Amino acid sequence: MRSVFYILTVLSVIGLAFWAYRENYATQRAIAETEQLHHDIQRAHARLAVLRAEWAYLNRPSRLRDLVDINFDNLGLLPLAPEQFGLIDQVAYPPPVELPITNPVDVSTMEASE
């Protein structure tokens, strides 16, 4: 009976060792994937910072003013003036559309028949 107990104990230790071995490698793989994701996020943040800097550089008022001057013949862009804005009362809204009644129902005859 002791030999069966010893064999079962040895087999359970071997099984647990195999399980611990697999878990160790799964954990190391998860850590490596996490580190790779952190590096990808850092690269994305760096790229975003570069794109924001490029956008700020391209939207400089002096550059945009020069582009407007160069393309004035094609675009006809002028600076905004306060006279160009109006009041909400000056907006001409279209009149409401009246929908035609295509299939009328006479309610008074329906109540009398019931």
Automatic annotation (TrEMBL):
Q: An example of a Gene Ontology BP annotation on this entry?
A: cell division
**Sorted UniProt keywords:** Cell cycle, Cell division
Q: Which domain of life is it from?
A: Bacteria
Stated name of the protein = Cell division protein FtsL
Give the source species: Pseudosulfitobacter pseudonitzschiae
